[in-house]
Queue: 3 jobs
Job 1
Amino acid sequence: MSLIAHLLAGIGRRVLAALATIGRVVLFAARAFSHMVRPPFYGRELLNALLHIGWLSLPVVGMTAIFTGAALALQIYAGGSRFDAQAVVPQIVALGIVRELGPVLVGLMIAARVTSSIAAEIATMKVTEQIDALTTLSTHPMKYLVAPRVLAALICVPVLVGLGDIIGILGGYTVAVNNLDFNGAVYIRNTVDFLEPLDVISSLVKGAVFGVIAATMGCYAGMQSGRGAQGVGRATKSSVEAASVLILAANVALTGAFFSL
């Protein structure tokens, strides 16, 4: 019995530690949002974050989307040919990209590129005592470092998701027209007629949520990092892991909220 009690106690400690971490992250995100709407505002930091998160992420997002759309079209055509259903390629590609693959892949790319960068940058600033210097200069680190990055992600990632959706559909169109002998005009008409406004809205809302998750986890891991190079490495790794898992979990929740019957 003592062994069982010891195992249960260990599980209980881990559960309580996980719940405490979730609570700290939620409070951290709430403080970040509160600093977004209270002056002073740091416009230069926001512009730098918009450039880093939005514009500089566009190439990797575009390449990911176009290859995904092309591969999806080939897979759907190959699967549909078994049931003489090749004609549904435009509709399924559009639905798959806009509802799921577009926002999820963009979110994961942002987690890989932006979350890791934010965590490493802020953790390095903590190690080199730059955050302490900000406090000494009466500059709140949450307002100067965290709020602009979270706000920039909230603005940029839905735009990236929308562009990724378009590029992904274009990838499917290119393969279907050039390799699978689809008529281009018919393909576009089927795509436009099949998509509904709710599909596009859900995609953009997912992008906003995923962007907030990615930026928040990067900032949180950086602010909570330990001292030294190992602390920076652990912060970077844990931020990407947490952001990726939370993005996938949030995708399930949002899909259920938008499309549950």
Job 2
Amino acid sequence: MTQSTSVPASQQPGMNRISYLPVPDETQVPEGVRKLWGKAEANIGFVPNVFRAQAVNGEQFLAWWNYFNLLLNKEGYLTNAERELVAVVVSGVNRCLYCAISHGAALREFLGDPLKADAVAVNWRHADLTERERTLAAYAEKLTLHPAEVTAADLQPLREVGLDDHQIMELVQVIGMFNLTNRVSSALGFVPNAEYYRQGR
């Protein structure tokens, strides 16, 4: 007789799974994670699934969030729209469902142009981008797909469209952050919140 084992709801099909791993509840995470979940609920009306799924290792999640938040949500050297553009290009190239959907939503809001943002999410070459935006997208794609081929010469097009050293450094960090986050999200099957599909439309 085969012994049956229970499968966590987070792994069962058709049961609102958001990750391949079991997702902790509020009693299983550090206080800092609970506070962040509460802040998200108050500010945007829901807790992003990535906040719940990554909290399996609460302190590591908080360390990731602090860096991610600094790069994407604080005042930086690139504009919010430029950082989200890069996020969507990298996520699209990596075919990361969670990040392409969630940051596609943010890009729609920052651009105020759902058609342009949706085109970026599918194939940035078919989007109505400025020369500067196209240069950012091309660099993000190359660094994502062919990092070993990137040389100092690849910085020249960035400088030609006006990027300074601070902006180049931030651009590289944002590209790196999304390659990391894409891989975590894809490896563990993170599912985007339904709210993202409606946001910015």
Job 3
Amino acid sequence: MSSADFTSDCANCAALCCLAFAFDKGERFAHDKDAGEACKHLTQHQCAIHNDLETRGYKGCVTYECLGAGQRVTAMFGQSWREVPKLTAPMIDAFRTMRDIQELRQLLRAAKTLPLPNEKSAEREAWLAALDSTWTRESLSRFDANGTATAIRTWLRGLAEHLAR
């Protein structure tokens, strides 16, 4: 697994982050937006103010990282919510789940640097192997429903005792 596995590729994404999340007008965003509503600066799948985000009041957009979830979900669906509006909710759900999976993969990868006992290293590898599978819309739905993310996060919190002091 390389760091490229966690790199966003906006050119191959259906602007899912600009659709999926809500934000409130304030220090990080210049206007309110509801989850599931396309950002008012979105034209097709591109941000009309992308080169000016920070100066226009969108620091939250500048700092957000989908960890490669956006392009994976877009490829999985093969179509865009713009082209097929009934895909909006399923793509949002898949994007949120894939983002969570990518974050967990990144955390498990980072845990490799810890001085873990063999048993914990094997558990880490097993969790990582489970997350490195080929994902489909159906498997993403099952992942979200079966509590795997919660189990992995609980396991990761248990690694605190192995941190160097």
